[in-house]
Structure formats: C-alpha cells, structure tokens
Amino acid sequence: MTTPAKRVPNGEYIVSSRTSRDSRTAAVDPLGPLRDPQEPDCDVFLTGAVFLDIIFTGLDSAPVRGTESWARGMGSSPGGVANMATALARLGLRTCLAAAFGDDHYGEYCWDALEQGEGIDLSMSRTVPGWHSPVTVSMAYEGERTMVSHGHEAPPPAGPGPFPQCPPRTRAAVASLGLGGGEPWVAEAARDGARVFADVGWDESGRWDLGALADLEHCEAFLPNAGEAMAYTRTDCPRAAARALAEKVPIAVVTMGAEGSYAVDGRTGETAQVPAITVDALDPTGAGDVYVAGFLTGTLAAWPLADRLAFAGLTAALSVQEFGGSLSAPGWPEVAHWWRTAPEELRGRYGFLDDLVPPGAAPASRRRAVPTIGFRRPA
To answer: What Rg, from alpha-carbon coordinates, does the chain have?
Structure first.
C-alpha cells in the first residue's frame, strides 16, 4: 500500500489547518500522565469504510411512498468509520485510520475533513483512482433514523504495503466484529500489545452465535447494545447478558438506551451502572461510535469503571444534539461547557470532570455538518 500524496487545498473546499485543530484539542490530553517515550506514537488504530453521509432531520414521520417529504434540517459529513475516528481524535487521542478514499469530490472532501480538520493520521490510507465514494442518506425522525446506502467494495491495493500486513504499534484498536474467520490484523495487533475494543452489528442471519465472533478472544472490551447482547447470550435481561459476556471477554459493556449502560469487569467481578443523560436529540447518527470512543478514552486513562460509563454516556448525549455522525462528536471544550452548566443532581456523578476539563475554556469553533460539502470561497 502506498502512502498517498498530501492533498493541497485548491479553493474548492473549506479546509481548517492542522495548527488550528491542534489549538482546539491541546487543552486536554487524557493520557498525559501516562505517556512514556517508549510507548507507541499511535493511541488508537482503526480501519473500515468511509462514507459521505447526507443527513436529513426535522422529519415529522417516515417518508411515504408516492409523496415528497421536506426536512427542516440537513447536514453532510464524513461517515462510516470516520464517525469513530473523529470522536477519538476530538477527545485528544492520537488516531490512525486505514481506509480507502474515492478520487471524486466526495472522497477529497472526506480526506481533507479528517486529516486537515481533525488531525487524524491517514498515512495508512489510500486514494483509489476511478472508484467512487460510498454514500449514505440518513433520515432522522421520531427519535430514530432510517438509512439508505450505496457503494462498492474498494479494489485491493496494487502492491504490498504496511496494512493489513503490518498494523502499527498502538495502545488500542477498534474492531467491528463479524461472523466467520475474523480479521488477521486484529490478532496481530493484540499480540503486539494493543487493547482491542469491539462492537458488533445486527446479525441478519438470526443465528446469534457468539462462537462465530472469531476476534472476540482478542478483545479487551466488547460493547454491544442490549438487543444484541441478549440475543448472543440467550438471556432476557441486559445485566444478565453482560455477566454472561464477561465470561468470554475481560470487560463487557451493554448499552441500554434511555436506561444508560451496565458493565462487568470479568477479571475483578466489579459491576457498574450509570443512567443516561436526558437531552433533546436532533440526530442519533454516530452516537454509538461516540460512546465507544468515550469508554475507550477512559479505559486507556485508567479511570474507574463507573466513570468510564458516565463519560461515554455524556459524550454520546452531547453528540445527538448536533447534525451528523463524525462532525457531531464533542471535544473537551464541549464537555467543559456542559460541566459548568450541569444540573445539580448530576454534579456528584460527574465530579471526576473537575480534574479534567480546562478551566474557563469556551466551546471551540469546530467543523459541524452543513447542507453542502463546501463552498468555493476560502474560509
């Protein structure tokens, strides 16, 4: 795999400089006290497909066949694995993404948004000539979303490269578990010392065979939602499902929607449950990815289990108040702003933020999803 040439802004898109991005996130390094010159430069590695997401919000109901529906809001942003990568980077983690990008305008926009706008390391990514970017249209209504996607699998690289033959040394990796033989890079990353955090998609086959998730054995933490967890463990209670999963993986976290989340540390027997924060949700796209990013951040920073659940839930709650998946992810300025105005009844549970958030920092100006992918005039 060849390292792509650095993209040069040509006036077609609004591009934030890396310097401005660094100034936004430098206020908090959650791993600062733990950093060691001998540790890998990469905090988190992930790979997957990058989509251009087009999100419609403010729909009163689902679209009806034969009619035209008008949305009161619309946004565009990088999607797919970009949701997780952006959430990690905005929380101050050094994030490396290996992905294929189309050489169309959509692909160029997504590349610039991730590399220049968010400071994500794309040295293991590549541009594929003649391949168009995958696209997802997401419609948010009644607290849920419906998605329509189109895309084709990217052709394999023409020659050898550093990935997937050799994933980078990293503190952690994020994997999406699938049925079958697993991804060789996951096992290699785990052998090299990476802590693997995994989620899973809905099993369309209906078998829900936990043994078929081959890479689960390499995972530090597994974070399914309640429906998935109960289906895989043949239980009728999310907490029972988490306890069953903790027999297979060191840390099992089950998200339960409005009820919050429940976790079991299988090594120590510790359990924790934290209720969800009630917010007015605009768009739930990417909230699950933001949750995983928050939990991963707290785990690498060696926070108590309950604090990790609380922080993950908070970041997910902040994300659903903005358009889109990737560009709705909060950073430390948004966390700090929420903490300064948090309801009194939540201040005890989230008191650990006192030692983390930058004092007096105002929410930073950062990229958000907008109706188009860019303007021709400079920023």
So the answer is: 20
273-326 pLDDT tens trace: 999 999 887 777 788 999 999 999 999 999 999 999 999 999 999 998 886 778
Closest to 2 (Cα-Cα) out of 122, 125, 96 = 125
Report how far residue 326's alpha carbon sits from residue 287's, in angstroms, rounded to the nearest whole number: 9
Which pLDDT belongs to residue 364?
57
Q: Map tokens 């052998």 to a residue.
A: 191
What string of H, E and C letters represents the secondary structure of the chain? CCCCCCCCCCCCCCCCCHHHHHHHHCCCCCCHHHCCCCCCCEEEEEECCEEEEEEEECCCCCCCCCCCCCCCEEEEEEEEHHHHHHHHHHCCCCEEEECEEECCHHHHHHHHHHHHHHCCECCCCEEECCCCCCEEEEEEECCEEEEEEECCCCCCCCCCCCCCCCCCCEEEEEEEECCECCCHHHHHHHHCCCEEEEEECCCCCCCCCHHHEHHHHHEEEECCEHHHHHHHHCCCCHHHHHHHHCCCCCEEEEECHHHCEEEEECCCCCEEEECCCCCCCCCCCCHHHHHHHHHHHHHHCCCCHHHHHHHHHHHHHHHCCCCCCHHHCCCHHHHHHHHHCCCHHHCCCCHHHHHCCCCCCCCCCCCCCECCCCCCCCC
What phi and psi, each to the nearest 5 degrees, are found at residue 271?
Answer: -125, 160
pTM: 0.88
Mind listing the pLDDT tens digit for each residue in 82-123? Answer: 999 999 999 999 999 999 999 999 999 999 999 999 999 999
- Decide: residue 237, CB within 10 A, 0-12 exposed, 13-18 middle, 19+ buried: middle
pLDDT of residue 363: 56
Where on the phi/psi map is residue 234: left (φ > 0), alpha (ψ -120 to 50), or beta? Answer: left
In angstroms, the CA 80 to CA 279 distance is 24
